[in-house]
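On to my pick:
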Amino acid sequence: MKKIIKVVLRISFIFYFLALVVLMFLGHRGGIFSDLSLIEYIKASSNFVPFKTISTYVQAMFDGSMNADIPIKNLGGNLFMFLPMGIYLPFFIKRISKVGIFIISMIVVLFFLETVQIVSRRGSFDVDDFILNMIGALLGYGIWKMKFVQNLLK
């Protein structure tokens, strides 16, 4: 049973990684800023104010100023997109078994991905995405650390 679970985790990681690449870099993005210089593009499509986007979406859900699907997909998608990473990262890299090392590793990974998105003009740099992705990864890490999950792998 242990070997089957490990094989399933390895195979599922490949599909997860491919889905992540498609969602973050290959999906359709609006090209309204395509004629701007990189610096102008960064200024126009970045959010460095924590909870600005999150509060906008929450407010829009309560006052009905936006179709509810948009904030739910954005907030929920960012929250759950990195939940599997909280399981895969400590599974594949044994040194990331402590929460502090996991957090530092996720900060580096998420910062790198947000930076690549903005530099490649395949998205924006949004600190709120970073926050939601981190919370999702920590939820996944919490699942990974559960005795039930650890016992499955022993």
User: Anything to note?
Assistant: The longest helix spans residues 2-26.
